[in-house]
Fold each of these.
Amino acid sequence: MTDAAGGSRAAVGTGTGGRRPWSGRRVLLGVTGGIAAYKAIQIARDLTQLGTLVDTVLTRRARDFVGPLSFEALTGRRCHTGMWAPGQPLTHIALARAADAVCVAPATADLLARAAAGRADDLITAILLATRAPVLLCPAMNDRMWEHPQTRANARHLQDVLGYQLVGPAVGPLAWDEGEGPGRMEEPAAIIEHIGRALGAVPALRGRTVVVTAGPTREPIDDVRVLSNRSSGRMGYALAAAAWRRGAEVILISGPATVPPPAGSVLVSVETAAEMAAAVARHLPHASALLMSAAVADFRPAESRSGKIKRAAMPASIQLEPAPDVLVSTHDARPPGCFVVGFALEAEAALDHARAKLRAKDLDLVVLNPAGEPGAGFEVSTNRVTLLDRAGAVEALPLLSKDEVAERVMDRVVAALEPHD
């Protein structure tokens, strides 16, 4: 079965399954004539695997770099290459109306100029005039072209007057023998996250700040050795990404994680529990939600020595003392209405301990992790959690990806922050 734009719906999203907020949504991907056009193939592939219906439009110059067949093979949908097609005189209107978001990647200097002037001399610019969906433009060009006053004026007009979002450009290697500079197209993974924000933003989080803690802390024994734990930071980073996609401004306070930081978040790097407590205290006054997923050390060496302790001089024991309890330290500083989520890693009497933590630390929600269960907890991409809220409700979730666990937690945050009659 085909839709109005000539794509087979049955062929889309059958690879790895859908993910919010991309799954079941429709994105129009415009590709213009620049060397970065090859990256658009990855964008189309990844969006499709997320469950997105991807309609691709290639300009005439884009076809000098990439061909329609690549996009059609990866999306299962027709790739559009011209304004007029037999039997479809209003393709630009059909595509513009169907799109939940429009992304042009790469967006050349010429595309920016034509879009800023309101031109409609090819299919992609006609769609830009006809759509009412969010529009993302991903500039890609030589650094001198990007820095030209006319290009910068076009960029300002597109953002400030037309309300389009410019994603990038990034700073990095340009075309052969051109060195590095601003003008490189953002990487596909970052562009997909920006598309996710365009699709997933909700009024309840618009203009609000969400503070997320993530990763382990490290408590120094000397200048070389530390006490730490096996947290990778994946859960906290997934929470930060989910909050940002829903429209929040996200402050991610992280210990040394093993995964790259998510797009959009402001990363605050810390090492020790004391540093994390100080960072949370700085950003908490402006927070509408506080998600405390970091694996903060419970103990630290009572004395940290300078230099490196030699093997022959290693003490028989290391005296420990309690590390700062970061979550407890937030209690009196929480702004009115701030929704606070704590995490509990428990092995025995897990529900009882989680309920005790909910009460003792005055939380709105506790995410209970089972310790030692295969596929859950540290250093894996999945988790099985139980959600306990202030009203006493308990929701046990099945084994899910940490991305989906983050979405379930953010469902609770959004519900709490939505205005109620």
Amino acid sequence: MKAGLAIEQITTVVIGAGHAGLAASRCLSERSIDHVVLERGEVANSWRRERWDSLRLLTPNWQSRLPGYRYEGVDPDGFMDVAEVVAFISRFAAVAAAPVRTHTTVTSVRKTDDGYHVATDNGDLRCRCLVVASGACNLPHVPTLRQAVPASIVCVTPTEYRNPDQLPEGGVLIVGASATGVQLAYEIHRSGRPVTLSVGEHVRLPRTYRGRDVLWWMDASGIWNQRYDEIDDVTRVRRLPSPQLVGTPERNTLDLNALSAIGVELVGRLSAIRDGRALFSGGLRNQFALADLKMNRLLDTFDEWASTNPRDAEVGPSERFEPTRVPASSRLHLDLASGEIRSILWATGFRPDYSWLGIPVVDGKGRLRHDGGVVDAPGLYAIGLPVLRRRKSSFIYGAEDDARDLIDHLASYLARPAGPLRGTRPTYEKDQ
């Protein structure tokens, strides 16, 4: 705390002014709950500072909506680029009159007898409730074997990558084949650099199915609204990689078949780096078969829903896609000292950063302990995490429903008499 600054008292503090934090703010305002939104940079800061140049949303524009606000442009079936996403979120903040304090970094949070003490580089606050909306992708998750990469190899993460021009000429090894990995493999290969893509567990989806966007099917069939407490192994589902999708005007499908067809070399999961050699697993066939099986099960679900409702007359005929093609031969090792590979891009996922959260609610793997966003501490909530309350939770499209649920719970908590935090955790009322 800066000397001479009084500690400000406020009912609720929201940490993070991305789409999720702003959705929570709007719902707090609707209930006349005084609050402030703290943002380390600017509104939509991660979109401004930590995205590559060509990135577009995976979700079509018609699915871009927040409480009382939605896309109203001329291209509902298109996909926003980074600048458009920043403008969309920033305009929502303005329309909602969100009480955002930009360039205010939270340095620590600790319990008090009746709430929380939030320390920032612009003064301290005390609040009864806290909403953590700082995101799930604060830090790139890079495996420890990165330390064994020869010094001659340039290593970058997706938060550092902007375009192929920043990479040296020569071969690129991309580790990870989720949405990020396949998109960057395509872009970098088009720049003229040979690309080797290391493939582990992945989720394969067509961009369109039976004439409709695949995310239309996820929405219309109710799959995206499936609640977290209806999923058998929600912990595993929350860790699944993002589906192999890309948002383009042509609504192209970008899967491993599309990449191998243009010359991207597919190898197995990177398992080790020893003596300057990258070693890959030999399980490509199994990985492909599993991803294809899960995709076809999902398409079966769509077909069943269309037939049962009935909606078959509104969409095209049922279709199935070519299985993922297994390479005739796949390398099991690659000499990183040979000069063939000049750079490695680690598309191996992200993790949240809760280093500032001085409350024992984070497990040994750095994840918040929560029940549908109600964190394991009274008056503490989280929003914007994968499958937080529904399968759609981490998308812009999913923030409104989650925010309304959580702010309902928060309002009920505030209606109780204030008291020490040492008591029992507030009862969690499940949705009806």
Amino acid sequence: MSRSDASIAAMSAPDLRRTVLDASLEVIEQKGLGALSMREVARRAGVSHQAPYHHFGDREGILAAIALDGFTRLHAAMAKAVAKLSDPVDRLNAVGGAYIAFAVRYPSHFKIMFRSEMVEMERYPELHACADRAFNLLTSIVGEVASRRRAKDPQALVIASWSLAHGVATLLLEGKLDRHYGSSPSRRKAGTTAVLEAFGALLRDG
């Protein structure tokens, strides 16, 4: 894709930044993380070689921006999923389902968000705060379940719930569950819903 100098000049800074970010995601989705470079991103975006540096600083800056976008979307999806629910276990099932659905819809974001060797989160305060916000939502919902069950170790339940959702999401993305659930979206959703409901049933009966 190429752009004229005039069309680039007419773009606002946020639009140009988004264009570079979308081009980065396109490279990752088509060629993998190893193919991501500032030069390739500029070529895909149809902008000058300096534009990615101007908006993101370096390759890690692009990955941090993708992770930030991901955690923002993840938090919004989880919050929406539980907004109209009151039962603690139903809320936990819903937030787990939203987590898995996000991973399936945004696989490139998901893979980058949890790769500490790719992005040193401590270098990016906004990203760190956004990630904490998403995790704190999960923690608060698990806390509702823990309180109801009078759990002795709520933190263990948080880790168990997160591990379940993250593990199922990762297995889906790697195709490891296809022989169990098939590859169609409807069968995948039904399968993951069954897993979450099985976990929820254990919590209700425990």
Amino acid sequence: MYKILVVDDDYGIRSIMKDSLQNEDYSVKIAESGEEGLKYIKNKDFDLVITDMVMPPGINGIELMEKALEINNDLGFIVITAYGTIKTAVEALKKGAFDFITKPFSVSQMTSRIERFFENYELKEENKKLKQELSYEKKFKRLVGKSKPMRTIYEQIEVVADSSAPVLLQGESGTGKELIAQAIHDNSSRNKKPFIRINCAAIPETLFESTLFGHEKGAFTHAIKTKKGLFEEAQDGTLLLDEISEIPISMQAKLLRVLQEEEITRVGGSKEIPINVRIIATTNRDIRKLIKEEKFRSDLYFRLNVFPIKVPPLRNRPGDIPILINHFINKFRKKYDYDHKEISQEVVDVLLQKQWPGNVRQLENLVERAILYSGDDEKLRVEHFDMDSHPINLEEEKVTDDYITIDEMEKRLILRTLKKTDNNRTKAAEILGVSVRTIRNKLSQYKEEGINIPE
């Protein structure tokens, strides 16, 4: 509902305008002087102000407009005047009024001007939106989506990109956290410097320190030469710590010290080396829960969480699904050298109904397989899509027990997923949205319980 402020020292005009415009489904506020109108404008958002030109002894309509536009440059004005001269009208329009109307006027004359204003207003808003989308497409080439959640992400990237503040990207597996990290780097002043990514879940605990901070020759067996760590490799650039929650607790204090002191010491060395590195971390886990379980340091969390960005799951941005589908079709059409591929509306409708537990990555994999299945067929149809290739839905599980613990359900889910992936632990971890290390630790636990786990 559009909000209109009517400013006029004539009680009769104020009352008639309020009643008439409310009947047209506008939200209407009235003021009897320019001073009162300006007070309302300072404290409340309006879309349009309808003001009388002359309201003695206070400020007149043009003065009100000038002061109001300093507060809100997007505010619209229609000026009422009893002095219907060209000079008065031109002055009002030059100062920023959308239109003017002379007394006496009918309600229909006024409402037609208001309707014209809001038609123009909506057109301007649409143009503004299109310009913003074009700007986003240019700036964030790797990111796809026009939904409100994605526009929020774009806005957050613009805010934080050129700072040195650590960023913590939180979201489910497959939502595109690494692409967002890349976009932050690409739109920063560091974009000509290295962007280095490390998957914290993939580093053996014994190699963490040397991987991040480097080592001196002879620091340990097989250290046959001095080697820089990732912090030095990323100097003046950006270091992405993917799956930060998987860093061993023994390493977290050392990482915290480096972030605080902005210097590292190689393993086996004593020299402190200054570093200038922007840190971006990602996680698909609830770090606050890990803190309570004493598996993650709270001080490290607060150091990393200076600028948190919540990455939305695909199910919360369904409007982006058709855009993503077309993006992936074009990507894989070129990859597999097909001249033309298009998708039927029937398939799009089916895909819009899915919950997408695997998020954008799941959708991408589904489209790639469909391209391959379709062969020389130019149109992708339902039969080309392997709709069963998705993470298991717990609601579909047939549990015969009357009661079952969460741990037992988790065990069944992990073991069933491993069975479906032919014991491919990496694939199972991707489907379940956890790290390979988590799968490995759980399987070790199940072995201790006497469960036969295939190697």
